[in-house]
Amino acid sequence: MCRQNFSCVLLLFSTVILILISCKQASPEQDEPKALAEESSSMSIKRMYDIDLTENLYVEIAEKTPELKQLEEQIEKLRKAQEDSTKVFAAYIKKNELYYSSARQHMESIRDSVLKQKTRKLIESSQEKYRLNISRQQELLKTVMQKMNALNDLNESLKINKTIPLIEKYQKEKKPSVKAIEGFSKQLDQVLKLQDSLTKKHEAAMPR
């Protein structure tokens, strides 16, 4: 029942995320995001690359959007619940794997070939029963992982869908003027011209 509820919750949140992604809401007027503030222009290029700008922008949006904030809180709870619900089973599997691995090592130390073969069959038979016994749990675990992966994929897509309008707004409103670059280019031309003139004068004065 617990696993069924978990799967239902995963399906519910996947549906909610799909709705949020496809929803073409008009973006409310808001202050410039802190992640895109002018101070960021003074950062080094390396520091800029170290920043997850998509995540930072999305966090700002989620903090101001109740349904997104609630969604992220519930997804975080799901991730914690996934960890709690699977770690016991993971430990159970690990112990069984460790046992059969060590049992094989002991079996390999048997010198009598007939007894060794009987012991090998005993281990294989026991391991086969164990695998059949946990097949249902393994299948459920696989299904849950697939659903969590789908949820994470949708969540990443949602972050991009919600932050693209912000970066496009930034591109439109904060596009730098070309005047500064044009002015620098003209200064560069003047210095290049002077450099060329001095170089030619120096070459002409050199003895032949």
Automatic annotation (TrEMBL):
What are the record keywords, sorted? Coiled coil, Signal
Q: List the signal peptide residues.
A: 1-26
Coiled-coil region(s): 61-88
- Lineage: superkingdom: Bacteria
State the protein's name: Uncharacterized protein
Specify the taxonomic lineage. Answer: Bacteria, Pseudomonadati, Bacteroidota, Sphingobacteriia, Sphingobacteriales
